[in-house]
Design brief:
The structure is a homohexamer. By secondary structure, chain A is α+β, with helices and mostly antiparallel strands. Chain A has one domain: Tetrahydropterin Synthase, Chain A (2-Layer Sandwich). Chain A is 34% helix and 30% strand. Chain A contains 4 helices and 4 strands. A 4-stranded antiparallel β-sheet of chain A has the order 1-2-3-4. In chain A, a hairpin with a 2-residue loop joins strand 3 and strand 4. In chain A, helix 2 packs antiparallel against helix 4. Chains A and B meet through strand 1 and strand 2 of A and strand 1 and strand 2 of B. Strand 4 of chain B pairs antiparallel with strand 1 of chain E, so a sheet runs across the interface.
């Protein structure tokens, strides 16, 4: 079994808050991340897939196909967007990196399976000090 | 002459656009950076000062004092904020990294002078591929 | 299950040696790392915890609480210190990165459990070429 | 159980192709990576071993011994070489990073075992966006 | 005056040698970099331009135009190529990073001038330890 | 004129203090950096030289010669040492990075001149947030 990781990046705005909480409650739990006028990040995304290298060409999966799937399913929908307002796969979810990792997993699992590999891990770095991993 | 550089970071939302242009004109010049719902970045800021090391303590300037000046004058006003809407020193300026570098220079030049050193360069990295330097 | 990683850094002096060995024996096993006048490193520490994201706020654990635990239990006791002489949780241990990872695990396991998450991994980078991971 | 990782680097030329395919077929599957005049990379290699820290010296394995094994078995044979033409452990294999990871595992597994530790993972980064992991 | 830097990358094969020298002479001066079967690198290129930010849009130069110029004039001609054999602007030059920096300067100076800015610096990193800068 | 930069690293212990000051005075000016039991860093050193590329071999200076000079004059004397106690070129100087940059300049200027190039800049990074440059 071989693990192949592709890195992509996206720059998005977001805000952490719950509609059913007052501003004070949101501020208390989410602190400066709850700022009503938004803030944003250069998110770094690592998509790790696993599989046997093909005897035909020696790849787990052609990295250009993997790259196209990630661009179509994730980056084109979230890069230079507002995660709370515009990203279809984050609708009705609090915009934490935890929830983002699960949502991106759900976007990528099937298209990668169709290509004959398995999704293994979604890793997202929000800042150089904070990151999230999800293994399904 | 010695050059001392302090790195700080801030995560902010912004949008590039001119109020006096139509959405089409903004989109044509600024592309995806003009998205009306904002996007954001992990900005990295390098502040370089210059001076003679003090014979008393061997520093150009005590780095803790430099750090405090940058936190007070810049980071506390821009981190987790919306650059277009909330940052006093960016009022009435298009939110390009070029304009941001000049504005941060103007915030820091005097307080650093008062401490006996000279501001030499403001460098801002917007993404790992794009950065701006300003020398006054 | 979601994995959340927080990065922190500390700058410390250390020396690798055993009191019950002669200088020649220490030099033979530990080489330049056994220098009696000490040397030091910019250690990088990654603390990974795991858990279910809370339906209430979408976090595995509020990252500010995790950060405070790491600062209180580890960084405040080891940053700008001598690992051999001054760090309570390294008393009577050889100051290898292996032993450091186990000792930091022991400091953090319980306070993280009290907050409702589980410690998953301690990773320490001593130089850009050498690192250690410990999973308990 | 402790995991110890050593990073090494090598700069090599390669080309992805099958001798039994026409140039068009190679170009179709491998794209620009099939260029007949070669291209190359700064490969980064992480070798992770596992074991119990020795009560005698606190190491899983003396990192200088691990470094020497990697230099002798891998780096001296591949650095500043052509992976397709000159690297004995890549003979008759397509020069993908997947195959490279497996071949390097095979070179290192036994010498590390002889020193009393176990090889755990070979990770190779071909570019900052693409990497491979192999766990045996 | 504002300085704007764009980073791009290319992966190429090369070899350092002079046709009019024997293999021994080439080996003596260029060492392992003279390997007749080539080796290669992940080159990192930083292109710095300078100018006044436009009062109209706040840019020194639209970064998308700069990116397109670099892709067309440099990256498309050198990425996944052999610098000695295939890169038109390196014909008849020894493939050192020094010569590469001068050649890339010559490719980019005029197209950047046509867009109203000035080329300031070409920086190329061959490995994480070695880099070259050229200011014209 | 071409600028060539070589990066090297060293791991050392140090302490900032003046013998003619009381512990309280040292603590007040240097803070935690004055800890009597030392602390340490992974210092990163960039040595930049300038010159014309030789028409014979295309180098400003053979990087292996530059590397040997830096290893002999600087790294072998400071790596895994105590800067205050053991480094001959730092005797009687306060162990600030400012003073270190000047001292390393003095060690390297002449040997580089003898090889036909000129020393241009010494840059030292003490932590990822703090660095010093000296141009003679």
């Amino acid at each position: 079994m071989i693990y192949l990781t592709r890195r992509e990046r996206f720059c998005s705005a977001h805000r952490m808050f719950r509609k059913d909480w007052s501003d004070e409650e949101n501020q208390k739990v989410f602190g400066k991340c709850s700022n009503p006028n938004w803030h944003g990040h250069n998110y770094v995304l690592w998509v790790t897939i696993k599989g046997e290298p093909s005897p035909e060409h020696g790849f787990v999966m052609n990295i250009n196909i993997l790259k196209q799937i990630i661009l179509e399913k994730v980056i084109s929908k979230i890069d230079h967007k507002n995660i709370n307002l515009e990203v279809p796969f984050m609708k009705e979810r609090i915009a934490t990196t935890e929830n983002l990792a699960v949502a991106i997993w759900n976007e990528l699992e099937l298209p990668i399976k169709i290509e004959g590999a398995s999704l293994h891990c979604i890793k997202i770095e929000e800042t150089e000090n904070n990151s999230i991993e999800y293994y399904g």
